[in-house]
Structures are given as structure tokens and as C-alpha cells.
Amino acid sequence: MRTYLIRGVLALAVVLAVAGPAAAQSVIRGKVVDGQGKPVEGATVTIEATESNRRAEVKTNRNGEFMQIGLPSGRYNVTAAKDNLKQAQPATITQGNPTELSFQLTPTSGITPEQAKAQQEMQALAQGAIEAMRAGRDDEAIQKFNEIVVKIPTCSDCYYNLGVAYSKKQQFAEAEAAFLKATELAPNSGDAYTGLANVYNAQKKFDQAQQASAKAAELSAAGGAGGSAEALYNQGVILWNAGKFADAKIQFEAAVKTDPKMAMAFYQLGMANLNLGLIAESRKAFEGYLQAEPNGAKAAEVQTFLKQLPQ
User: What is the CATH code for 8-106?
Assistant: First the structure.
């Protein structure tokens, strides 16, 4: 139903490391300065998406400024680096809303050797947790993320990742607790609410799932995206599973309007229309699936439907 995000933690700061795909295009720009606030020319700015290999790299000009256009909407990890100095931070890129970031590259001489060592150890632990997550070693990831939250109890992304890992193991009570903690620490982030919705949906707690999904959609809309296609799709799936096909249809229609390349939303819209006896609308939705993903997992099934449905 949904591809979870995996979020990374670098040093003592929370840094988003993985994002789901999106079709919208936008721009990211910003400035890199040194410890005295002077522009850093020639710094390398690396922009990395997650759950994909999408990566862009630009250099700052003599004013310390950088810009990258043509990036799909979504979540990224952005790193500015020059010589032995580096700073990373998360970024959410949204169509029509330029994302602006500021970096300050400073030497580590301002911290004690003990602080530097602790920072390096935390970074290694966080990197290991992310690598375990990506490799599907969920028990290892859970252990490492739990170690991090003992030291950094405000790490909302750590709790989010714990929710993801517990969900994959179908340990729903632990997943629910982790996602709830993530919403407490980051109340304006919709991802944890989507995680909660999936946990409730898996347990057939459809009313709770719908409430959590609606909250995720509300936060997505408040962020300027007008409601993400994924949040709308998730709401539709929850309503579908609850047998509310007419309500599900509305959500799937909104999802394909938001993201015309979201093949599974077209597929579910076609199925909802079939259940409602709307044959012509069902055909149109299934044709939309093939346009979005002609060789997709449901392509053969959709082609069979189109052959069987009356014109």
C-alpha cells in the first residue's frame, strides 16, 4: 500500500535520508558561508533523494550561492562540503515553492575532543542503523535506533524508523507506540500519521486508520502541497478496505488529479468504479493506469479488464 520512508540521523542532528518518488518538479537554492559569515566559493552541495538513486551535485559561486532546478518534489538530504568541513540538513522540495537552505561550514576546533569523539560515535551508530534498515536487517536497525533515542530522546526520525521496522515485523503495538512518539516530537510531520494509519489498517481498525490518514493529508495540505497524492491514496485504500467504495472513489480521484503518474491510484479508482457499477468511468481509470505504467505489475490484469468490459 505504501513505501515507507527511511530517515537518517547524522551526528547529533536529525537528517532525512530517504524519500518516496514524486512527479512534480521544483527548485532548491541557498548559500554557504564560513564561520565568519563570509561566502564560501567552490563548496560542493550534494542533493540526495531516498528510496531511489536520484542525486544532484552543484558548486557554489563566488557569492557562496547555489541553485539546482528540475528536481522532483519530495524529501532530500542536502550536504554542503569543502575541504574537511561539512554540514548536512534535510530539505522538502515542493512544486512551485522554491526551497531555500543556509549552511555554515565551521571547523571542529570549537568542541572538545570528548565531544568530537561522542559525535563521531553517534554518527557511526546512526549510519549503521540506516544501512541495516535499507538491507532489511530490521532487528539490528531496531537495536541501533533504540540506542540512539536513549542518548537523544528528541530524535523524532528515530522513532519514525522504529515504527517502520516494527511494522515490517508485524509488531503493531510497538509500531504504534513509536509512531505516536514521533507525532508527539514532530506534530507537524504527516509521515508518522501515515505510519499510524498503516498500522491501524493492518489490524482492521479502520476508523482509527481513517482518522490518522486524514491528519496526514491535513498536514500535507498545510505544508503547501495541497494534499499529497500518497496521503490521498492511503485514505482511499483505508476506505476501500472498510467497504466504503464511494468515499474511496473520491480519494482515488483526488490522488490521480494530484499525481497523474500514480498508476496504483488509477487502478484502485478503476476497481472502485467497478464496484459502484460505473463501467465507463472504470474503463477510463484502467486506461489511465496503462498510460502511467504500461508495464506495471497490474498491466496484464488491467488489459484483461478492458477486454471484458463493454465499450
Answer: 2.60.40.10
